[in-house]
Amino acid sequence: MEGSYRGLAITAQVSVVHPNRAEPVYLSFLKSTFCGTSPRHAEFPLSRDGMDTSGAGRELGRRGPAPLPLRRASSRMEAIMLANWITLSRFPLLLINVLVLYLGSPQLRLAGVALLLIGLLLDTVDGMVARKTHQTSLFGSVLDIAADRTYELVLWVVFADLRLIPVAIPIIVIARTTLTDAFRGIGVGQGTAPFAQHRTPLGRFLVGSTIMRTGYAVTKVLTFCGLALVQSFAGFGAGSTLASIAAPMSGVLQVVAWVAVGFCVLRGLPVIIHWFKESWGA
Fold first, then answer.
1. Per-residue pLDDT tens digits for 77-103
2. 77-281 is classed in which CATH architecture?
3. Comma-separated ranges of CATH 1.20.120 domains in the chain
């Protein structure tokens, strides 16, 4: 919202990005709105169509590269888009993984475990890119959660359908996810990022602390990749060594899966309790 207000204040500023060609004001407005910054490096007289008529802009374009504020705005947008594209790439990877789990040969399923691990680890990569470049956005935060939810719900349901985990696990996760995302949507509608909606120290710890986020992430990765391995090993035949490993592995992973569900529920409770209090307080 703040970026939009800054963008509306631009009436006679123009950025030159190419020799002999000035940039229209409406393009400066769009860049300021979506990049969160307004170009302050040049002010030129403009014609009715928003083009520079002074000649100063064309001269500046011949003298060197685009001014620093514009380059910074461009770099910021590129960083945000890179993180978002990393997040979006997880969706086709998930589709491939599901198809492999159901239709692939044991050898292909074994290779699919590596692909599944990549898709899960990309959740960490997109966040690292956004934080390292200090370029986060409300849309990116919501998109990241949407990708996480899609992975979690689809994989829990798939593994339950393959009879590798109890059906109670996806039921609990779906109920928790539906409630938390519905309540978080209220805050997002008010312009507050999902992880910025927690005001108490305990709520921030349960939802956003390194211990809770890492614990949940590790147990999920172990469960999903382990169950994918079990599904692959079981397909090699009853007499094979890999098939004999599948049963004991499955027992251990059942425990890990329930630990992951425990993390899931604990991290969702502050969201649900907070919005119930807000509603009752109103």
1. 555 577 788 888 899 999 999 999 999
2. Up-down Bundle (1.20)
3. 77-281
Identify which of 88, 87, 111, 89 has the alpha carbon closest to the alpha carbon of residue 100: 111
What SS3 state is found at 163? coil
Q: What is the CA radius of gyration of the chain?
A: 25
Please state the pTM of the whole predicted model: 0.66
Average pLDDT of the chain?
74
Alpha-carbon 119 to chain mean position = 12
Whether residue 60 contacts residue 110, with contact meaning beta carbons closer than 8 Å, is answered with no
Between the two ends of the chain, the Cα-to-Cα distance in Å is 26
Q: Would you tell me how many other CB atoms lie within 10 Å of the CB of residue 243? A: 15
- CA torsion, points 256, 261, 264, 267, in degrees to nearest 10? -90
User: 23: which DSSP letter?
Assistant: P
pLDDT at 45 over 90: no
List the structure tokens of 146: 């949407």
